[in-house]
Write a structure and sequence with these properties.
The complex is a heterodimer. By secondary structure, chain A is mostly beta strands. Chain A has no helices and 11 strands. In chain A, the strands form 2 sheets. In chain A, strands 2, 4, 5, 6, 9, 10 and 11 form a 7-stranded mixed beta sheet that branches. Chain B contains no helices and 9 strands. By secondary structure, chain B is mainly beta. Helix content of chain B is about 0%, strand content about 45%. Classes of the chains: A mainly beta, B mainly beta. At the A-B interface, strand 5 and strand 10 of A face strand 7 and strand 8 of B.
Amino acid sequence: EVQLVQSGAEVKKSGESLKISCKVSGYSFTNNWIGWVRQMPGKGLEWMGIIDPDDSDTRYNVSFRGQVTMSVDKSINTAYLQWRSLKASDTAMYYCARLQSRSRRLLSAFDYWGQGTLVTVSS
Amino acid sequence: QSVLTQPPSVSGAPGQRVTISCTGKSSNIGADFEVHWYQQLPGTAPKLLIFDNNNRPSGVPDRFASSRSGVSASLAITGLQAEDEADYYCQSYDSSLSVLLFGGGTKLTVL
């Protein structure tokens, strides 16, 4: 069974750093790109970027480039999303999700999703 | 405002048919890029409902179907049930922005 299990909720202060995780199981980690999606309180879904676990190739939404960093650790089948300096506007639910088709990348659907990590940043 | 435009809300009575539109541009849906649909039940992660325009993952009932024409796509839900009450999102790719796009989302209320 394919599963993406994300790390728990975080409460941080503005200016602090943070790294959240997404551990996958049930399939070969390097076969599918992993994406990150933001959902601000009461709002819709926003694509942040995708990463290829095989070689750490990344594609960022220009709106998030420079604001976050995606990475993976193949040895433990885990993807990460990190911030160097959080802002109150980073308060949101963050989802990791698996891209269905390796070859079609951004044209592909997200077929499996993590349960989400709620990040709350106070000013 | 999202590049893929969805109505903020739709509603229907149990058993009825409802449709949710997703209107884009010539650089996304109009360019024949695939459209996918997600269902997000309250307090849960999104779930893939339709992929590649009109394919259902295993376990998704055939009450859910999608179509497309020109710069728009639509999700149709027939035989509406109380458990269908959720937010629905369309997704596609935009070649001029080089981004994966989600629609703004539509809240379905079952009356």
